[in-house]
Amino acid sequence: MAQYRVVSGSVALITIQNPPVNALRAAVREGLFNAIKRASSDPQVRSVVLSGHNGTFCGGADIKEFGNVSLPGPHLVEVFQLMEDLVKPVVAAIEGFALGGGLELALACHYRIGHSKARVGFPEVNLGLFPGAGGSQRLPRLVGVPAALDIIITGRHVAAGEALKLGLLDKVIDQNTVDAAVTFAKSVEGKPLDNHRLGNRPCPPLENMDAFFEEAMKRVHSRARGAVAPITCVQAVRGAATLPFHKGMELEKMLLGTLFNSAQAQASQYCFFAERAGARWSMPSGARWDTCKAKPIGTAAVIGLGTMGRGITVALARAGLSVVAVETQEHQLAEAQRAVSRMLKGGGRVSYSPDLQAAAEVDLVVEAVFEDMAIKEKIFKQLSEVCKPGTLLTTNTSTLDIDRLASCTRDPQLVVGMHFFAPAHIMRLLEVVYGPRSSPEAVATAMQLGKRMGKVSVAVGNCTGFVGNRMLKPYLEQANFLLEEGATPELVDAALEEFGFPMGVFKMSDLSGLDVGWRVRKEEGLTGPGVTAGQPMRIRHSRRYSPLGDLMCEEGRYGQKTGSGWYLYDKPGGRVARSDPWLRNFLEQYRARHGLVARRISQQEVLERCLYALINEGFRVLEDGIAASPQNIDAIYVFGYSWPKHRGGPMFYASQVGLARVLEGLNHYHQAHPDVPHLEPCSLLRRLVASGSPPIDKWSEVVKGHRSQL
Ligand code: NAI
Q: How many Cα neighbours within 13 Å face the side chain of 1?
């Protein structure tokens, strides 16, 4: 686990060996501890070089060991202290990356030499933690408080060049890092080490320290959206700045203790795995990620260069594909060309055309024209004629039936959905939607392309709204019902923002445009001329219906783009939402007209009704086999819908709240609103509760049993 050999006569070269990332699991800690002791007592040795096997210094603690209270082997803090106290100089030779515990290890060395391509960082905050094995105390002593706080709070990777400027690395080199470190180690043999033991050094002084930390805390509070870890980062770094090292270490230990087994840390760590779980996709047919091969894709076409098409073009070009961008409207084409070039900063290989014929030779097409079945059907028919045989035809539709589009083509097995999220070049999520006839190879290809674009790709089945938008519908519906019953957009949004969403549901729909849903509802015959005469306004298909969104659109209130929606904006396209007295009046009149009496609605009711309705639909998605696992649903919500990571995604959240409590809540609200089927607990949830609410990673067994009974 830690290989030991003496090189160049006097240098003990210790190499951590624990593929793939040399994580510091118990055996590695033990190996390191023993190797350092050996170097200490070996009379031939006058210096030490610490490196990682196979071009990677160290990826940090082993996340699989987290949550295990009584870990065997020496604690990291002990290993690091032993190393820092060594009377012979220790030089870290950093290749690849030194992350988390790996960077803490490097900070316990007396010198750090990095390869020019190496990266360092403290990603712990993304796991609901902070660098709690001395990292929060040593880094500020080395690079100063502001730089350290930034690195610890953001969890970002710092490139070698920047690390050198900050003083985090002593040297950056292009050649063999271990050789350079050995030469360097020999040059410092016998030299005094005190100033190189970070634990012995005070932090570089900071003017206005109190004001600095006050400001930092304010900033973190406003950005953390209820996450505790970033706040703890500030507290720990403040400890480094104000306390002697040993006291700072005590504070660090105490703070870490409060986080380590917290619900938030568990949720964040769950997200870490959920993010990766999508790659191991499977289809109900039995096709799987490890048995299907992706087709190589070098060229792609994007059809329709509106909001989505532009972002998709950028994402594909950034992934190294050569892209043909097609748009029939002349002014849109010109505008898109300018916007895409700006986003690509002149890079990327993109050509533009008003003619679909330009897609003839590409390997893959992403269609992103208006959400209109008739138009899309026509385009798929044309594409099927124009494109060379074997071209994969994908659609960015957010709700429409993939199989109907497939049936317009010669090769329905080549059709899948690639559902991007706005803005498509930034949002991490990609839903890859397979229809009943999509080939496993087509799915594998879309998944692989998602990976190349840096997306979190999740394979899902074909149904209205797929996974994300299908679950969103009952959530939006509840929000509207709550307005009818007496809530305000401000109250609902505040509850959801306090929960951790960056934006409440009404601010969100103002941003994406109320007209989008209106158009869909008109097409579905829920509003507009398609509605049968004499139907009561608040009932559709014998279920409760809220026409509030339709009424807003009839008033021309589409949200930010028109300057007013659920809120008021200073101008069309304005972004700062203000309360609108018009809306208050409108709601009062609406309630009066329909004989509704406003009641006081608590934030708890808002949360329970909106979130439980969404979660309930999530269970239906699982039950129907549209998503393969709760992890997949949670990844969709965290990466596509900004569900707060420290809450782990809706299904994980349900497991933390307790399935029995969610069931009870749904039962209660369904009794109060029997005309709302989305509040009726689904049978899978009942069954899970009846089976004693197993932990989330055991749900699949209940799902399987449940499906076989259906
Ligand atoms: P958009 O209205 O901004 O853009 C559509 C573009 O397609 C327009 O520029 C239009 O001129 C062009 N177009 C129409 N017919 C065409 C044809 N025959 N050939 C070439 N271009 C044609 O629409 P947006 O928002 O970009 O949506 C596109 C698709 O993406 C829709 O299916 C939508 O449901 C889906 N989507 C939208 C999201 C959003 O947040 N806007 C999110 C995810 C999916």
A: 15
